[in-house]
Every structure is written in structure tokens, then in C-alpha cells.
Design a protein that fits this description.
Blueprint lengths: L6 E3 L2 E2 L4 E3 L2 E3 L2 E2 L8 E4 L4 E2 L3 E8 L2 E3 L2 E9 L4 E3 L2 E3 L1 E4 L4 E3 L2 E3 L25
Parallel strand pairs: 1-4, 2-5, 3-6, 4-7, 5-8, 6-8, 7-9, 8-10, 9-11, 10-12, 10-13, 11-14, 12-15
């Protein structure tokens, strides 16, 4: 746990689930191949960097990309400025996202990274 008022500067690697109620200035990630590890950002938590994890829960603020092998949950107070790559997603009304939200391609066991993303190009958008 990164408690409220605490600051971490640099890369944070967690092999067990972690909750962030303070501030992290750098990436938050899990070792390759780890499963069932959750990175949870509390209401007062802030992450200024990328998050790579099996599961990511956000109730606070993230300024960076989120790569989740399994699931991303954005609670009503969540604010994300960056792209989100997910396998499964839940977004509560009130959550804010400025960035692309992309479904992963491949199996849940594969590493969560930008190489496992499908981007569909729309040639024309019509609003009626």
C-alpha cells in the first residue's frame, strides 16, 4: 500500500496486489507472467506514469497509459488522461477518460502491451 500523503518517485514493481492512496511519479507494473495481481488507485490516489497489470481499478487519477491483461474498472470519481488497453472493462457514470479505449487481442496470459491492440479505422461517421 502507498498511503495517503506518501510519494513514490520512480518505477514501482509489485508481485502482489497493491493499493495507491498517495502519489506515484513513475510507472507501476507487475513482473511478466504474473496473474491475479490488482493495482487499485484509491479516490485520493494519483499516478503520473503508465500502469501495466493483470487488473487495474481506478477511483482516483491517472496521467499515463493503462495496460490490463484482464480487466479495467473506472469508478465514478476516476479521471484518466491516457490510452486504456483492456480485455474486459467496467466504467461507472461520471468517470472521465481523455484518450483511446482499446480492446486487447489475444489470450489473457499474454503480456499487456501495445502490440496486443486492435485499432479499427472508421472511414465515415454519420450522426442522425
Amino acid at each position: 500500500m502507498v498511503g495517503e500523503g506518501a510519494e513514490v518517485h520512480g518505477r514501482l514493481v509489485a508481485s502482489k496486489s497493491i493499493r495507491i492512496d498517495g502519489s506515484v511519479y513513475g510507472s507501476v507494473e507487475i513482473p511478466d507472467g504474473e496473474r491475479n495481481v490488482t493495482v487499485a488507485i484509491g479516490v485520493n490516489g494519483k499516478v503520473f506514469g503508465d500502469i501495466k497489470s493483470y487488473r487495474v481499478l481506478v477511483a482516483g487519477m491517472v496521467e499515463g497509459k493503462i495496460y490490463a491483461t484482464e480487466r479495467v474498472e473506472l469508478h465514478k470519481q476516476a479521471s484518466v488522461k491516457g490510452d486504456i488497453t483492456y480485455n474486459d472493462i467496467g466504467i461507472e457514470p461520471g468517470a472521465q477518460v481523455v484518450g483511446f479505449v482499446m480492446k486487447r487481442v489475444g489470450k489473457k496470459n499474454e503480456p499487456a502491451d501495445a502490440d496486443n491492440v486492435v485499432v479499427t479505422k472508421f472511414s465515415k461517421l454519420e450522426v442522425k
